[in-house]
Amino acid sequence: MISLHDLTKIFPGGVRALDGIDLTVADGEFFALLGPSGCGKTTLLRTIAGLETPTSGKISINDTDVTALPPGNRDLAMVFQDYAIFPHMDVTTNIAYPLRIKKVPRAQRTAKAAEVAARLSLTELLHRRPAELSGGQQQRVALARAIACHPAAFLFDEPLSNLDARLRLEARTFLKRLQRELAVTTVFVTHDQAEALALADRIAVMSHGRMVQVGTPTEIFHRPATTFVASFIGSTPMNLLPARLAGAALHVAGATLPAPAGLTPADHLTYGVRPEYMDLSLTERPDAFPGVISVLENLGTHTLVTLETPGTLIQLVVPEGDEPPIGTPAWAVPRRALIYRDQTLHTP
Ligand SMILES: Nc1ncnc2c1ncn2[C@@H]1O[C@H](COP(=O)(O)OP(=O)(O)OP(=O)(O)O)[C@@H](O)[C@H]1O
Ligand SMILES: [Mg+2]
């Protein structure tokens, strides 16, 4: 278990990289930190690891206060963005290194290194040195080295960022299975929302050193707490449209839609609908956004359609082959939407 209490990090020069973080990561939990570049993900991980000293606040690992402990005494295995592996050692020796520190006999640690290497498709490379490896291969060596020992927690900072798309998917599935098997508490940094959704038991979405929302992938995907989270999660971004309450109806981009309870005409409202949760109609209807098909993007099994409406663009996803040609007048019918008041999710 990792507990963070009111953790703040202000760098010399004044950047507030962490701003009062409170969080408990449960035993065996796979926890993802997600957020745009510069939001404080690496700083948070480095602070947990002891590589940065917090300006204030407290860190506990398995109920021991480690705030003042050096990195080596925290029993953590890390893979960082720059995956430093030892240039003068071959792959086997690199992977087995933490076991050597723990004084595991040579035969045993070589066997363990070979086993972990096989699971990361590194068997052919065991005798090479880092300079003879590609970036993605080096990253897998760093990952293998972390999992060769059995620490209190794994800290991963974008450990898959240098892998090509296919290898990244394979490594992701492998990591998830391995983490389940070992049941080691894991904090995983990524700026890839799909990776966070796929891997994590829970996700924290960060912005400017704070956690904007913490929840399960389902909660974060279906009920993003703010428009920031809403725009960040989803393979195609949610449509966020200005809305206005008039009587019992919402006026949104040329459509008249039923309004939820608890709103007033003075509210600053945003109507959020995912591209996947809209249908396309070729006949006019009042509860749909009118426009003209302006761009078609091939997504393989589906097509991303951009509808140009007066004042805004709306995107929706239709099954491949169902897209009308560019220039066709069309109506986007929302099936499932969220309302934000002052950028915050409105719960009637
Ligand atoms: N050593 C440092 N000194 C001063 N400012 C720093 C230092 N390290 C990071 N920062 C600043 O702290 C903020 C958070 O940086 P951090 O590296 O944690 O972001 P990140 O979320 O990991 O971003 P990325 O996705 O680009 O890796 C940024 O504004 C960054 O410029
Ligand atoms: Mg980073």
UniProtKB/TrEMBL annotation:
Family annotation (SMART domains): AAA
GO CC aspect terms: ATP-binding cassette (ABC) transporter complex, substrate-binding subunit-containing
Gene3D superfamilies: Nucleic acid-binding proteins (2.40.50.140), P-loop containing nucleotide triphosphate hydrolases (3.40.50.300)
GO molecular function, one term: ABC-type transporter activity
Entry keyword set: ATP-binding, Cell membrane, Membrane, Nucleotide-binding, Sugar transport, Translocase, Transport
Keyword set includes Chaperone: no
Residue ranges of domain ABC transporter in the record: 2-233
Protein name: ABC-type sugar transport system, ATPase component
Lineage per the UniProt record: Bacteria, Bacillati, Actinomycetota, Actinomycetes, Streptosporangiales
